[in-house]
Amino acid sequence: MLRYESIEELCETAEKSGRPLCELTLEQQALQIERPVEEIYEGMRCSLQVMREAVADGIDPDLRSTSGLTGGTAWQMQQRVEHGETLCGRMFGGALARALAVSELNAAMGRIVAAPTAGSCGIIPAAVLSLQEERGLPERAAVLSLFTASAVGMVIAKNASISGAQGGCQAECGSASAMAAAALVELSGGTPRMIGHAVAIALKNVLGLVCDPVAGLVEIPCIKRNAGGVANALMAAELALAGIESAIPPDEVILVMKRIGDLMPVSLRETADGGLAQTPTGCALRKKVFGE
pTM for the whole thing? Predict the structure, then answer.
């Protein structure tokens, strides 16, 4: 029985059972809410489909947010991918385009999956869908990887936070990046320990990341941070799959993230009273949207 107390518990339970973490999470969720496993799986499959649709709808040259501040960058990135112009290859470029697409669709009031939040909604879809396409993986594998991501997210939410208002963007895009890294390792056949190290590596790279939305809107710099989040997830998974370990265990990293979030001034926790939101350009954009 998974209790989501720690990443260590998740890893140990999976190791002792000899089964993938995704399967254990699926079964535990079904047991917890007293629903058939097939019904829980179908719910997650529907979530993956919404993610896929959000990518398709978000890659639109004419898409613009309600504020008018953002839109169209996913299409720009996708053009580089399609023309073979990316610096790091088709999969990496495609992951960036997908992350931007879902985030821009969110800003345009489109339908997305908050994974784990609306502000970080592009990271997990970009990671999972990009690897699925690159390797021609079956839908079931992609769906199951989301259960692994959700298990990691529940541990983070329980021991720290997934809220930008509470812990800064490290708690939103950082948590999503760690969850995405876990899903990538699962999809690649990595061990439970590799999943734990990927989570730790991903989170360590974003410790202290503030939440400073320009004009108080989930657009600038949030959309491009989603692209950064999936890039970070790919790197963390790649290292972990190579057998590279985090010197600091994932649960300790999660607790540190909480402590850092608690130390952050309120101005850097989704209030738009600090950081990029208070730059001259940030203030000018706020006036452009809301007036004096």
Answer: 0.98
